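Readers outside the structure-tokenisation community will struggle with the description of the input data as it stands. For illustration, here is how one protein appears when written out as sequence plus structure tokens:
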Amino acid sequence: MLVLGLETSCDETAAAVVGPGDRVCGNVVASQADLHGRYGGVVPELASRRHLERLLPVIDLALEEAGVDWEAVEGLAVTCGPGLAGALAVGVAAAKALALCRGLPLVGINHLEGHLFAVALDGGPPPEASLALIVSGAHTDLVWVEAPHRYTVLGRTRDDAAGEAFDKVARAMGLGYPGGPALDRLGREGDPAAVPLPVPMAGRRQGGYDFSFSGIKTAALRALAAAPARTPRFDADLAASLQRVVAASLIGAVARAALELRPRALLLVGGVAANSVLRARMAAEAARLDLPLRTPAPAWCTDNAAMIAAAGRSRLALGERAGPDLGAWADLPLEGWQAPVRKEGA
């Protein structure tokens, strides 16, 4: 089945065509970084307007890149949450209209499930009995993957997400937006032990898997403000130190959960999964636990429509179809979520 996926949950207008074997035939992502960079972060109303302007041209480009026309498309998948309500509404409305006028089956996809299915783009769906760490600018979740589409959320952030902490400290350092990638590059030149920062929730009680990154964000900002002199060396040391303690907090929770639950594999997905420090620490932990690690190529870590199409192909193959009441929910949970669906032939 050839599926067209649409992703408009935040500030990336994306469309992709994915075919058998989750092969990406066409993939287009129109970034809005230039628009939001001047404000230091995403402005929801501006994001929605830009999606309105770009979505249909992006779809045309994705079909052109795939070398197919609408007659070859056999299904549609669209992100319907979580995300910015207005941005999501643009994608969902477009998907419903296209499905209606083209007579195509449609399925709604949870954005976080899309990140889990990003691993499928490099070799098969999320494996059964795996432990997944989803890390992005808005989400930090530790998830038990019983099987594709069957998940249990073990822990999530109580406040800021890991990526949000990176972005806000990077903005204070003058690294621009998005700050996470710039912080990663800068940190490679620094000493990760140079700036004393606490490991977030290092004293968390056994059995708890929640995260918290508001405190480490504040600690890093205080270290920045207290620096006797802002030098390139200090900035590099702060970037390296911040990434070290955030990765330590994340990997600590993964290690404890892996020892308790005995997964068959570890997954690392989401925008922050492209961070070089976190990838290296996760790979080392997987090797220590003697577990295979599945993490997407960096291009599939950030928001894209190929992962949405891959998740959609799987759900459509199971006979799921969204009804006309499919909506855009800004706070759609991963655990226990089911979009309004009907089985094929029902």
Summary: The domain at 129-296 is CATH 3.30.420.40 (Nucleotidyltransferase; domain 5). The chain has a mean pLDDT of 92. The chain has eleven helices and twelve strands.
